[in-house]
Amino acid sequence: MIGADYQRNWTQYFDFVGDSGARETLLCALDSHGPIDSARPPLALDVACGEGRDTRELLRRGWRVVAFDASEDGLTRLRASIDSAWAERLTLHRLSMEEAATSRLLPARVDVVNASFALPFCSPESFPALWSRLCGMLSPGGRFAGQIFGDRDEWAPVRPASHYTREAMLGLFEGFVMERCDEVEKDGSDAMGAVKHHHLFHVVARKG
Predict the structure, then answer these.
(1) Phi first, then psi: what are they for 195, rounded to 5°?
(2) Backbone torsions φ then ψ of 70, nearest 5 degrees
(3) CB 47 within 8 Å of CB 122
(4) 141-179 pLDDT per residue, tens
(5) In percent, how much of the chain has pLDDT > 90?
(6) What is the DSSP letter of 153?
(7) CA distances (Å), 80 to each of 53, 54, 172, in order?
(8) If phi over 0 gives left and psi between -120 and 50 gives alpha, with beta otherwise, what is residue 198?
(9) Measured between alpha carbons, how far is 166 from 72 in angstroms, rounded to an integer?
(10) Considering 89, 108, 167, 168, which has the largest number of Cβ atoms within 10 A of its Cβ?
(11) Is 200 helix (H, G, I), strand (E, B) or coil?
(12) Which residue from 29, 58, 65, 22 is spatially nearest to 203, judged by alpha carbons?
């Protein structure tokens, strides 16, 4: 259930999803990137990483990762869950997405921006600056992986500006090549078991 301020009980959410694997969009982006040079591992940014299901997959595959989240609980769970051998390739920051839009803590260039079910939770006022920052830090040929929520989603009336028509969603990716763009609309359960109507876009896009 989403709150009137478009927030949820994140600790409870982490309890529900903590044993889940990485998101399919991230897996698709990593597979498309191909083999990496372990002597010079590529760098990924994990946006609103939560308890780390995607960060762990990136580290497992040998990537360096800068990950941030506003929840100290999520970051604590992530720190406790990683193999000690991965620690030197991980940098964590406690930042909201609104703060990340202008923070000097984030890298100038990355090879993947991962934002799994995260971006709709950025305030509409800050989203344009965040989106510009994320697109700007992607290296040419780098990939975005994540979700954009659709305008027919059950949560859209709570904060309409955070939900997009297909045309508006595609407009966000000007200058990108869409490698995956799956539009899903269905009735089903959300991550915490509540029944809702879903409308969203699963996106993997390569920067031109």
Answers:
(1) -80, 135
(2) -80, -15
(3) no
(4) 999 999 999 999 999 999 999 999 999 999 999 999 999
(5) 85
(6) S
(7) 12, 15, 35
(8) beta
(9) 34
(10) 89
(11) strand
(12) 29
Token pair recorded at residue 10: 């994140």
Beta strands in the chain (DSSP E): 43-46, 64-69, 90-94, 110-115, 138-149, 176-189, 195-207
Q: Cite the DSSP H helix spans in 110-189.
A: 127-137, 166-172
What are the structural domains of the chain?
A: 22-31+39-207 (3.40.50.150)
- From residue 162, how far is each of 25, 62, 130, 177, 199 by CA, in Å? 20, 33, 13, 23, 12
Q: How confident is the model at residue 6 (pLDDT cuts 50, 70, 90)?
A: confident
Angle between helices 10-17 and 72-81 (to 10 degrees): 30
Q: Would you give the distance in Å from CA 99 to the centre of its chain?
A: 15
* Residue of 177, 205, 208 lying closest to 25 (CA atoms): 205
Rounded to whole angstroms, the Cα distance separating 178 from 28 reads 12
Query: For residue 88, what are its two tokens?
Result: 């030197």
Q: Are 152 and 164 in contact (CB under 8 A)?
A: no
State both tokens at 156. 């859209």
Distance from C-alpha of 28 to C-alpha of 11, rounded to nearest angstrom: 28
DSSP H helical ranges for the chain: 10-17, 24-33, 53-60, 72-81, 97-100, 127-137, 166-172
